[in-house]
């Protein structure tokens, strides 16, 4: 059974990509509003989050899952417009992790990927939760399997995922929570979120010596690494025995000359993950666990959604340019509220 939206117009505005390339390839088009199926809801989008994968998809460097919308955007907040779900009704305020299509006035989503917006949260705050927080939760708990007392190194710590990971590591009672960034100003913010130590790095000033100094030579049990090749040798040198090194991005390249004896000697496990391509049941369980652990913490203020900048959705090119400068601390949000 499926159901189309019962409104006079079946057309919505969406951000599309002409062909792989720079921001000039982005444009706003008029498309047909999605048709929902059983256990799905149609969300009238109020805000959407901008993520690094959106830029990579625009550039043709991110493979979109076969069943996903080609429209950019994987997280949003809004109001349920139509529902074929037992969990949500028309008018409910929700935030959602979607497989694509969030850069639109309307998006269809399985009800399992939707969450009630935390009390006192605005649509803009809520749009900054699903992708980065659920990704960070997956990395911390499912992939790295954090334990109380672990030392953790978080690269690109001022990113949306980094800001969430700092807070989740603190909630998990990690020992040293070490945040790295190329901006000292960003690291002040990371410290306010719960980082116990911060390191400013560049091509001349590496991080390994400082990490070993902070940990008194013990190294770190967990590395969250969205960089890849550029940090490989430094990361390997700070791994404690049996460290869990989680690679979830490749912003620093893909090719390395690897001497695996160092990995073998330390018993290091390199684990990798992307969330978007995970199957339905995995994401459903992950979201359920995230909600059980974190929703009350958002409502009581223990966990904070970090919003850096808000752009009207028609200025999506400016939003992408801003992310490409790496100036943001926390989330960049697209505002659709004036269009509904």
UniProtKB/TrEMBL annotation:
| UniProt GO molecular function | NADPH binding; oxidoreductase activity, acting on NAD(P)H
Answer whether the UniProt record assigns the keyword Cell inner membrane to this protein. Answer: no
Record Pfam families: ADH_N, ADH_zinc_N
Domain Enoyl reductase (ER): from-to ranges: 21-334
Q: Gene3D superfamilies recorded for this chain?
A: Medium-chain alcohol dehydrogenases, catalytic domain (3.90.180.10), NAD(P)-binding Rossmann-like Domain (3.40.50.720)
What are the boundaries of the signal sequence? none
Q: What are the entry keywords?
A: NADP, Oxidoreductase
CDD domains (alphabetical): p53_inducible_oxidoreductase
- InterPro entries documented for this protein: ADH-like_C, ADH-like_N, ER, GroES-like_sf, NAD(P)-bd_dom_sf, Quinone_OxRdtase_PIG3
Q: Is this entry keyworded RNA-binding?
A: no
Mind telling me which SMART domains this protein's record contains? PKS_ER
Q: List the NCBIfam families.
A: quinone_pig3
Can you say what this protein is called?
A: Zinc binding alcohol dehydrogenase domain containing 2
């Amino acid at each position: 059974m499926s159901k189309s939206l019962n409104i006079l117009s079946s057309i919505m505005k969406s951000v599309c990509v002409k062909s792989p390339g720079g921001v000039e390839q982005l444009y706003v088009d008029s498309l047909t509003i999605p048709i929902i199926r059983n256990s799905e809801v149609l969300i009238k989008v109020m805000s959407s989050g901008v993520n690094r994968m959106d830029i990579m998809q625009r550039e043709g460097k991110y493979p979109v899952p076969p069943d996903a919308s080609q429209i950019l955007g994987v997280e949003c907040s809004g109001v349920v417009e139509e529902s074929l779900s037992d969990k949500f009704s028309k008018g409910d305020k929700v935030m959602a992790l979607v497989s694509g299509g969030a850069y639109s006035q309307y998006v269809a989503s399985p009800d399992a990927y939707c969450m009630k917006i935390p009390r006192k949260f605005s649509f803009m705050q809520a749009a900054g939760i699903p992708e980065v927080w659920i990704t960070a939760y997956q990395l911390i708990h499912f992939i790295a399997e954090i334990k109380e007392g672990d030392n953790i190194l978080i690269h690109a710590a001022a990113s949306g995922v980094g800001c969430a990971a700092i807070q989740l590591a603190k909630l998990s009672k990690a020992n040293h929570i070490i945040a790295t960034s190329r901006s000292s100003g960003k690291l002040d913010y990371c410290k306010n979120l719960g980082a116990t130590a911060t390191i400013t790095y560049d091509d001349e000033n590496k991080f390994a010596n400082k990490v070993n100094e902070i940990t008194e030579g013990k190294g770190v049990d967990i590395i969250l690494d969205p960089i890849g090749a550029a940090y490989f040798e430094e990361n390997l040198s700070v791994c404690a025995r049996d460290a869990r090194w989680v690679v979830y991005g490749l912003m620093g390249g893909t090719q390395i000359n690897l001497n695996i004896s160092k990995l073998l000697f330390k018993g290091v496990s390199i684990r990798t993950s992307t969330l978007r391509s995970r199957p339905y049941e995995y994401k459903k369980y992950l979201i359920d666990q995230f909600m059980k652990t974190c929703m009350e913490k958002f409502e009581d203020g223990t966990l904070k959604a970090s919003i850096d900048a808000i752009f009207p959705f028609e200025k999506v090119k400016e939003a992408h340019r801003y992310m490409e400068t790496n100036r943001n601390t926390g989330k960049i949000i697209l505002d659709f509220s004036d269009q509904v």
